[in-house]
From TrEMBL, chain A:
Family statement drawn from the similarity comment of this UniProt entry: Belongs to the TRAP-alpha family.
Coiled coil: none
Record field: compositional bias (Basic residues): 248-257
Membrane topology designation: Single-pass type I membrane protein
Primary site of residence: endoplasmic reticulum
Domain of life: Eukaryota
Keyword Endoplasmic reticulum in record: yes
Protein name: Translocon-associated protein subunit alpha
Assembly and oligomerization: Heterotetramer of TRAP-alpha, TRAP-beta, TRAP-delta and TRAP-gamma. Interacts with palmitoylated calnexin (CALX), the interaction is required for efficient folding of glycosylated proteins.
The entry's keywords: Endoplasmic reticulum, Membrane, Signal, Transmembrane, Transmembrane helix
TrEMBL record, chain B:
Subunit record text: Heterotetramer of TRAP-alpha, TRAP-beta, TRAP-delta and TRAP-gamma.
Protein's cellular compartments: Endoplasmic reticulum membrane
Organism (species): Caenorhabditis tropicalis
Gene Ontology cellular component terms for the protein in this record: endoplasmic reticulum membrane
Record protein name field: Translocon-associated protein subunit beta
Membrane topology: Single-pass type I membrane protein
Source lineage: Eukaryota, Metazoa, Ecdysozoa, Nematoda, Chromadorea
Main location: endoplasmic reticulum
Superkingdom in the source lineage: Eukaryota
Pfam family, one: TRAP_beta
Amino acid sequence: MKLSTIFLLSTIGLLSVYASDVVDGEVTDDAPKAAQEEDDLTIGASPDAGLAFHFVQPADANVLHEFYTGKPVKFLIGFQNKGEKDFVVKFSETSFRYPTDYNYHLQNFTRGEYNRRVAPKEEVTLDYGFYAHESFAGRPVGLVVNVHYQDADGNAFVNNVFNQTVNILEDDSGFSGETGFLFIFFIALSIGGLYLANQFLSKLSRKSGLSKRRVVEQGTSSEVDFEWIPRDAVKNKEKKSPVAGSPKARKSAKKAD
Amino acid sequence: MQFSLFFLLVAAVTCADVGTQTKDAFVLAHKQPLSTYAVENMDFVLEYGLYNVGDKPAQKVTIDDRHSFPTNSFEIVKGLLHVHYEKIPAGGNVTHSVVIRPRAFGFFNYTAAQVTYYTDNENLHVTLTNTPGEGYIYRQREYDRRFAPKYTYFLIFFFIVAPTTLGSFLLFQQSKARFPNIVKKKTT
């Protein structure tokens, strides 16, 4: 009796673990709530389709789940047809959700249109890429990627391939124009400050003595060195005197002669 | 008795875990142009990436992309369009690049490359990569107009500007020649 109860309990345990694991371990369809939100009510995954997901562009995103703003995020979706009929992969939809409430869409990205036919026992890789906007910097968002596909009979299916919270970090590796120009402005300001300080100090030192000898301007010496004036120019002057400014000046010139 | 019950439960949990988690090799194949512009008679770089996202190694992996670049319209400068890898371990990845040179300009449809691999040495998997899609191969002259250095334009600009720059320089030289004394004085 004891042994039978033990076996019974263990089988119940095994079954329960299996049931729970199937629910949360496998990549299955979107949460039922989300499915109801969308217009297609009872769409789920097909048992004949195997899907895989892999980030390509930030190489460590598969482990860390971190992206940088302004840098491309690229990922691959693998689609495996395990059944006997053709599948047509229609498109993938990528969206950012509010991390505490995945029904709230923060941003819907453009669909990745594929329309690829996948023959039985064949696989296809699809790619998609997006940029995270700067306004998401420094906070977590829920990233959801759904793949929509059809079988040969026209039945539509949706598979969720990625449904996790990711952190979006600010990109501080590259040169940003704003900080660069701020830096240049500070350099210019410091040079200006140095110049002003120099002026001020020199003024102070002048006031505190060191009186210079005053130079009194007495005009140029009356001797004119004609040597540097070209000959033709001097001749010109001898020939024809330029018109004097006013009659008064002319008179005074005559008197002097 | 209690201990044995606990042991059985643990065994059941581990068995179930292994059952759900074991996945075959699953290779994602990726094809991507690295050059921004395809131009006739200029190099064009393509990259292929293979990512094994399964839990087992993929064996006898081949990439075959010979059908998407027919030799009458493309010249292969470097690299092979048909490569073979013995094994890609679980979680591993391989990148392979090829340099080709388009012979003609116009629209060209970049189609998928075919990748085949074996799991457990017997199950053949056939994978197609993503398709980069339709791209335009630029005419050489069109490309030069946009990106080549514009020496002829500079030459024409020089001729246009010459009267005002060279002309005034010559005039300056002329007037300078009229003042030879200064130079003599300074040297003596």
